Inverse folding.
């Protein structure tokens, strides 16, 4: 059959050049069940009809050899205003991004939906972590997931009207009536926040005693931001719990659709607000793939160095608050001293401390300043001694060990099932660090180890991050010793701001430059994505361009979202102090969860 | 000028009366001393707020309060003024009588315990009281009511959990606190604090013979004051502010100061019971020297309290319980048994 079919239009689908997974899928379901979509990243992307997709996903998870065990991302696209179709005609698309650690490879399955009230069967039975992703897609796109156990809004308040990521929903406050909060409205909002155990299938009491329902957050010293988790308590034992997120939602994905490719960069800084330029990295890498820009080696190395600086500052804050959450108040003050020193270097290089927004499409904002090497050297010589001290004084403390070892444990299989990445995955002993597994931005040129844990408990998560800081210092030292010479920006018309050297010599360059600066660059239609090993786990940007100055759809996959979803699975049956240790050891910031 | 007239006669009569009733004079002097001790302890406790913040600053690589007055000493006054004038708001949902009584209980029990501590020769209130240290146990037991009442009457879940933890913690720690101290009582043969001090002056400090008793008693004492690492009833990272979550203004201030009075009392007791109290070279003849010795010894313990807070993480609630029942209680019992055996052996010999 397949042999008789007309030759595919796209050379990427020509037999022999197809990725392994596509061949496996064709063999199992037949080529007609799919439409292959070429993308600018190396993620095989296949469209499949709504009737077949569940089977396809189940096959990928359980049927293929070296299966795709992790549901990395699930979201949707409103296709109604797209001019350049990338696949079958659709009003909405739901996509499933699966990751196989065994293959070290991904696959993206897309399902086209039609109509204004689209619906698709839920896959929460196949992947436990589909639950929140489907709620998010319902919340922001109004896509109904049939059979979902509790299809409630997740990022927006329950009282919200409309689904903001739809294309007909305005992106600017000026397009709405002025917002007023009167007493009646406030009462309504408060009522909406009231926790009703029955909604979550919880009982208020057993035959002989009542449960206590405790609101931990949204304002709680250990909630690490505006995060609420409702606990069903029997004494101090957590019987069940419901994490409640969305208090920090700022609509970053919506903003990406109204900012130009260039002016969205500062928004990325504020996704994981401790990650600074680490957030810029997956975004600019994905945009560069769309534009077809190759950056000079100096850019790659500068980017790696600054990203590792932010890994250190983020991890230092993690370690300080982690130890503080065990009840030791002192170490964090010392770590703030270290962070200040790191930020001094960052400020000298980028001109800003926490949110430099310093990477550019095709490069970085400016070259390294004179004397940068001395500043960096001072810092990398300062930190290791301090790290040794923290390990000795805090991590080897008996009380801390008793509080964290075998507390909030989960194994590799659970981590993968729930989409846990980063140190939370490596603490279970799973050696998966994207910097090693899929080197980007020149990480293949660096020597460093991937620290692993064994038990997957709160202690290992702390130790893995402590060790990661040492490795980051190693990487920064290598950047310092081998910083390549050369330009700090690629010579490409789509970089931003574009090169100016020849603008006064020929009119064509002048016009391109003028448009590139005033409107911003126009990215060719297509899709790309970039996964990176961010401070808190795998962070990815999945960009869809419709050939305009703004992104058609920007999907930001953040690690913390998956990690928080996992909490009830890990902690039910433990005590409140163990929950605090879990929260401390996850290392999340709510901006990274809610976007 | 002749010393005659009704005024003079009255004065003479008074002097005669007082000479015939020396116990009244003693009572007045004792009351004055008690007042001095009372205010002294409260003032020291208040100053501790500053001491603690500055010391923690030193140990944590930062300054601590250093703006108000010399070395930031005026911070205490500033804090006091603030807390006195803060609106004393009571949440509408609390159980009023219990909510009001709780901070009072906290403050009074801890201050009353101070009657036991002789700060210098002849300077104490109940040094000769024949139930002596038992009174301390009684007051420490009563102090639990402050936390329990505060936690329960607040009608708030965090406060309730704090109160519950406190009750459980005190039950486990009071048991062996008494047992731990029995070694001292057995060696002295008396419950009276002055006898204990006199024995240490004549023989040796009890830290030498009662080391394990000291360790367990010190642990229990820290637990009594709810100081870190035994601050589970108010564990900030878990229960926000625990039992005093709903308190504000002066009522919160009383809980706050009571904690510091507790630190002073417990440090004073540790000094008195195990480190010879005010004893030291020349203290017998010069009471002021005795006071200085006492002050230095006590202050070292106070610093230790603060250092504990700066240095240690907090164990989990069930680990605290287990530590009490499975480790401290047996240790205290063995200590008591061995002490008894040694005493008997000595008598036999």
């Amino acid at each position: 059959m397949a042999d008789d079919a007309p030759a595919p239009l796209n050379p990427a689908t020509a037999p022999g050049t197809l990725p392994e997974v596509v061949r496996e899928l064709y063999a199992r379901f037949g080529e007609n069940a799919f439409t292959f979509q070429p993308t600018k990243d190396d993620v095989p992307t296949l469209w499949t009809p709504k009737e077949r997709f569940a089977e396809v996903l189940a096959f990928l998870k359980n049927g293929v050899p070296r299966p795709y065990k992790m549901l990395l991302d699930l979201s949707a696209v409103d296709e109604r205003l797209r001019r350049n179709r990338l696949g079958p005609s659709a009003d909405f698309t739901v996509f499933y991004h699966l990751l196989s650690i065994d293959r070290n490879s991904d696959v993206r399955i897309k399902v086209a939906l039609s109509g204004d009230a689209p619906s698709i069967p839920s896959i929460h039975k196949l992947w436990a972590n589909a639950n929140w992703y489907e709620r998010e897609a319902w919340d922001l796109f109004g896509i109904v997931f049939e059979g979902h156990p509790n299809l409630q809004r997740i990022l927006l308040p329950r009282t919200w009207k409309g689904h903001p990521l739809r294309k007909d929903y305005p992106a600017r406050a000026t397009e709405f009536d002025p917002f007023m909060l009167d007493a009646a409205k406030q009462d309504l909002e408060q009522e909406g926040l009231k926790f009703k155990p029955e909604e979550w299938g919880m009982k208020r009491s057993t035959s002989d005693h009542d449960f206590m329902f405790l609101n931990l957050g949204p304002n709680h010293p250990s909630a690490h931001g505006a995060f609420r988790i409702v606990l069903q308590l029997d004494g101090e034992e957590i019987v069940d719990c419901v994490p409640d997120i969305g208090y920090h939602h700022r609509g970053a994905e919506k903003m990406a659709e109204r900012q130009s490719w260039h002016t969205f960069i500062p928004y990325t800084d504020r996704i994981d607000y401790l990650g600074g330029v680490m957030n810029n990295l997956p975004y600019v890498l994905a945009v560069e793939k769309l534009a077809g820009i190759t950056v000079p080696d100096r850019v790659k190395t500068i980017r790696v160095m600054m990203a590792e600086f932010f890994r250190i500052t983020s991890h230092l804050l993690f370690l300080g608050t982690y130890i503080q959450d065990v009840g030791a108040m002192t170490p964090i003050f010392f770590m703030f001293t270290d962070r200040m020193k790191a930020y001094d270097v960052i400020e000298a290089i980028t001109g800003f401390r926490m949110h430099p927004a310093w990477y550019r499409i095709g490069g970085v904002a400016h070259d390294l300043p004179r004397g940068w090497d001395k500043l960096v050297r001072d810092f990398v010589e300062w930190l290791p001694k301090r790290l040794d001290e923290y390990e000795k004084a805090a991590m080897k403390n008996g009380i801390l060990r008793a509080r964290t070892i075998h507390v909030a444990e989960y194994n590799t299989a659970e981590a993968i099932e729930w989409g846990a990445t980063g140190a939370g995955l490596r603490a279970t002993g799973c050696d998966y660090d994207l910097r090693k597994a899929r080197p980007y931005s020149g990480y293949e040129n660096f020597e460093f180890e991937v620290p692993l844990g064994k038990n997957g408990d709160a202690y290992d998560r702390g130790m893995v991050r402590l060790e990661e800081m040492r490795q980051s210092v190693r990487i920064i030292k290598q950047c310092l010793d081998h910083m390549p010479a050369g330009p700090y920006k690629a010579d490409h018309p789509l970089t931003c701001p574009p090169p100016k050297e020849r603008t006064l010599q020929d009119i064509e360059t002048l016009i391109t430059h003028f448009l590139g600066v005033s409107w911003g660059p126009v990215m060719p239609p297509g899709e790309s994505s970039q996964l990176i090993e961010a401070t808190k786990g795998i962070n990815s940007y999945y960009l869809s361009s419709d050939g305009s100055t703004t992104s058609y759809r920007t999907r930001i996959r953040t690690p913390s979202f998956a990690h928080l979803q996992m909490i009830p699975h890990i902690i039910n049956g433990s005590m409140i102090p163990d929950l605090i240790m879990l929260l401390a050891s996850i290392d999340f910031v709510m901006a990274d969860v809610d976007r | 000028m002749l010393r005659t007239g009704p005024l003079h006669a009255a004065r003479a009569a008074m002097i005669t009366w007082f000479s015939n009733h020396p116990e009244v004079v003693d009572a007045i002097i004792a009351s004055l001393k008690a007042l001095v001790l009372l205010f002294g302890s409260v003032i020291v406790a208040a100053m501790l707020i500053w001491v603690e913040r500055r010391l923690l600053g030193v140990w944590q690589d930062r300054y601590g309060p250093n703006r108000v007055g010399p070395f930031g000493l005026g911070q205490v006054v500033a804090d006091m003024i603030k807390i006195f004038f803060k609106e004393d708001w009571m949440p509408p949902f609390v159980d009023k009588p219990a909510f009001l009584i709780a901070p009072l209980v906290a403050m009074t029990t801890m201050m009353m315990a101070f009657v036991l501590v002789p700060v210098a020769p002849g300077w104490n209130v109940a040094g000769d009281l024949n139930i002596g240290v038992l009174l301390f146990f009684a007051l420490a037991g009563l102090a639990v009511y402050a936390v329990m009442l505060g936690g329960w009457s607040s009608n708030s879940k965090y406060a309730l959990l704090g109160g519950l933890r406190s009750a459980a913690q005190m039950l486990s720690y009071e048991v062996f606190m008494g047992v731990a101290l029995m070694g001292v009582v057995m060696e002295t043969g008396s419950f009276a604090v002055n006898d204990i001090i006199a024995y240490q002056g004549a023989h040796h400090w009890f830290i030498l013979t009662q080391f394990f008793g000291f360790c367990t008693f010190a642990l229990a004492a820290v637990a009594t004051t709810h100081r870190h690492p035994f601050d589970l009833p108010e564990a900030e990272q878990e229960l926000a502010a625990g039992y005093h979550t709903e308190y504000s203004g002066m009522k919160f201030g009383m809980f706050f100061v009571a904690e510091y009075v507790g630190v002073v009392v417990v440090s004073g007791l540790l000094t008195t019971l195990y480190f010879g109290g005010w004893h030291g070279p020349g203290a017998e003849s010069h009471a002021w020297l005795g006071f200085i010795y006492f002050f230095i010894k006590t202050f070292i313990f106070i610093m230790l309290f603060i250092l504990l807070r700066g240095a240690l993480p907090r164990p989990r609630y069930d680990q605290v319980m287990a530590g009490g029942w499975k480790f401290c209680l047996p240790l205290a019992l063995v200590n008591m048994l061995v002490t008894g055996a040694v005493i008997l052996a000595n008598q036999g010999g």
Q: What stands out?
A: Chain B touches chain A at residues 56, 59-62, 157-158, 161, 164-165, 228-229, 231, 235-240, 309-319 (CB under 8 Å). Chain B is about 70% helix and 0% strand. Residues 88-348 of chain B form one domain. The CA atoms of residues 87 and 249 of chain B lie 6 Å apart.
